[in-house]
Amino acid sequence: MSTKTIFGLIGIFVSLVIFSSCGNPQIAEIDPTATPTPTKIMQVNPPTQTAVPSRCSGLGGELEIQILVGPAEIVGLEPVSVGSIPFSVTTADAPYLIQGGGGFNYADILVKEWGTYEVTMNMNGSVAGTCLADDTGGELALDLELTGSQLVVVTADGFNGEYPWEGTLPLNLNLPIEEGASASGEGFVIVLHLK
Length: 195
Description:
Radius of gyration: 43 Å
Largest sheet: 8 strands, antiparallel
Number of helices: 1
Shape: rod-shaped
Distance between the termini: 109 Å
Helix content: under 10%
């Protein structure tokens, strides 16, 4: 045999030993640094739940003040709207605090066949409290204070009577967060108006 033939047979034998073992082919290992393009791993983030804002957040409105003005038994008057107190939630997060205040004036005269009934009123009001809300509803817990003066003048058949009043009326109110919700007591009605 020639030298070329011997080297050829040795080459075939070495190739068979490398690529076969008990009839199973061997898989050559691949060098990972030889990869021409890097593998990108995609990361999927689950969607985040957005919180539902509270009904109290940014809430504002006014309290309509209806008062039975003067000694109304004389002429059979009902409570009348004399003014309103604006309010708003002043905090961005719970606890939701409420503040508000304002002044109002009221003047009216009732003319009847028996004479006149004249009322003038100057009031200042302040309101403070909290707004509480959940999935089922909400409530405003308010401390309302009205301070001022009132003068009723009754003139009838030569009679002239003056009835002054001056003082403070403190009220504790619990109102649902609903347009038109109201609270009442002797001589007053408070009506909630939302913006």
